[in-house]
């Protein structure tokens, strides 16, 4: 069955964390040199299990979105899932995840 | 970490590559799920969902790192991911089940190592070969 590769998520996580650290560096470094010397130089990592669960979480997100949108389309008697169905289920989906 | 303009441009192209791979996997999953339900999804919705999923994964990355830092750890663990799934009880229980299955697999591997007897891993729980 299709899904997300944990390795790909690992790369994505690292990228997001680098970007976050960079914007923190630009805004905070001047004021917080102590903190930086102490430990922020260490790049964070994620365990294999964590990545595996994250892959599953995102897969559930996608499957849930498709399920809800298609149920919405069927309830309205449409054969294709269109933007209006997706818009309708999106708020609750985002609240649930 | 390279903070100059070159670093920024390199990071941008890295992001584009990762995003492309992510989109491909996402779209494949969307189409497979739709097929199993015998529904059709228009292209604009497929793209919109892929974008939403990518944004969701970015938020997940930030959340799990904050949880790990809150627990004074440098490395993100399963507990952090489970915490990120706290909003929906069904999602959380699905993840916990997966976590338990993973734990059983580890136990079986350890037994094999200790006693030298070959134990067939359960087909259903062999997650290592399931992902594409």
From TrEMBL, chain A:
Pfam families cross-referenced by the UniProt entry: CENP-X
GO molecular function terms attached to this record: DNA binding
PANTHER family per record: CENTROMERE PROTEIN X
CC terms in the record's Gene Ontology section: FANCM-MHF complex
Protein name: Centromere protein X
Location in the cell: Nucleus
Keyword presence, DNA-binding: yes
Example GO biological process: resolution of meiotic recombination intermediates
Stated family: Belongs to the CENP-X/MHF2 family.
Plastid in keyword set: no
Keyword set, alphabetical order: DNA damage, DNA repair, DNA-binding, Nucleus
InterPro entries per the UniProt record, alphabetical: CENP-X (IPR018552)
Automatic annotation (TrEMBL), chain B:
Transmembrane helix listed as a keyword: no
GO molecular function, a single term: protein heterodimerization activity
Gene3D superfamilies: Histone, subunit A
Transmembrane segments: none
Keyword annotations of the record: DNA damage, DNA repair, DNA-binding
Superkingdom of the organism of origin: Eukaryota
InterPro entries named among the record's database cross-references: CENP-S/Mhf1, Histone-fold
One Pfam family per UniProt: CENP-S
CDD domains: HFD_CENP-S
GO cellular component, one term: FANCM-MHF complex
Gene Ontology biological process: DNA repair; replication fork processing; resolution of meiotic recombination intermediates
Family in the record: Belongs to the TAF9 family. CENP-S/MHF1 subfamily.
Protein name, UniProt field: Centromere protein S
Organism expressing this protein natively: Cymbomonas tetramitiformis
């Amino acid at each position: 069955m299709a899904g997300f590769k944990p390795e790909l998520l690992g790369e994505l996580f690292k990228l997001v964390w680098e970007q976050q650290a960079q914007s923190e560096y630009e805004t905070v470094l001047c004021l917080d040199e102590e903190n930086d010397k102490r430990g922020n130089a260490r790049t964070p990592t994620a365990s294999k299990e964590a990545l595996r669960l994250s892959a599953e979480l995102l897969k559930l997100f996608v499957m849930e979105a498709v399920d809800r949108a298609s149920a919405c389309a069927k309830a309205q008697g449409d054969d294709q899932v269109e933007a209006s169905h997706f818009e309708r289920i999106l708020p609750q989906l985002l609240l649930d995840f | 970490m390279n903070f100059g303009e070159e670093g920024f441009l390199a990071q941008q192209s890295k992001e584009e590559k990762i995003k492309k791979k992510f989109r491909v996997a996402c779209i494949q999953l969307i189409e497979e799920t739709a097929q199993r339900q015998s529904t059709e999804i228009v292209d604009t919705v497929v793209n919109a969902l892929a974008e939403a999923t990518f944004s969701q994964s970015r938020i997940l990355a930030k959340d799990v790192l904050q949880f790990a830092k809150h627990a004074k750890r440098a490395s993100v663990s399963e507990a952090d991911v489970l915490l990120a799934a706290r909003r929906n009880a069904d999602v959380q229980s699905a993840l916990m089940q997966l976590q338990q299955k993973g734990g059983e697999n580890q136990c079986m591997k350890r037994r094999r190592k200790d006693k030298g007897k070959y134990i067939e891993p359960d087909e259903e729980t062999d997650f290592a070969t399931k992902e594409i």
